[in-house]
Amino acid sequence: MTDNRLKVSYAFDDVPIQFRYDGENYEHIVHEVLKQYGFDNAADYQAHYEKKFKKDEAPLIFIINRNFRSFARNIESGAAGSEFSFVSFNDDTDTCVRTMIHEVLHQFGAIDYYLPDTVKQTAEKLFPESVMLRGWEIDDLTRYIIGWDKKLSDKAKQFLDETSGVTAEEISEARELDKDNDW
Length: 183
Ligand SMILES: [Zn+2]
Description:
The mean pLDDT is 88. The chain is mainly alpha-helical. It has 2 domains: 26-107, no CATH class; 117-177, no CATH class. Helix content is 40%, strand content 7%. It has helices at 26-36, 42-53, 93-107, 117-126, 140-145, 154-162, 168-177, and strands spanning 61-64, 71-73, 84-88. It binds zinc ion. The site of zinc ion has 4 residues, from α3.
């Protein structure tokens, strides 16, 4: 394990928009919010902050004070050129912060550990405290995926071995059935 320190800058904008939000019509919110700053899309907004703060990446998180299932959109989920997360904030600060970390990690490629069953069981055995499952820890495999560690640990290798049979279909089926977790 290496001692990587992150140099993080952040910008927080509080944008009061009146909106009905049910977790579905998020593209409209993205558009409305970015329009207030004079940007057409998330990629332009992020490029602005990358330049301003001289950083490689500028994850964009929309925190909305409504109860819905949080999620991240990235290239893998088919949103080319528009990467961002939506996090539900309903008075529970700890959960909100944990979810922010979880969703930002998705934007750097991290995967969910709570589905399908094979993945969940393996994660509960090897990375029970991972933020990609239910805890606060940045586990070995996640560290590797997001680029903190250059080498896979034995534990991370074991995780990959034990879940190597999982298919994309299994994952999407499990996601359809899953109603309890943030994505
Ligand atoms: Zn997730």
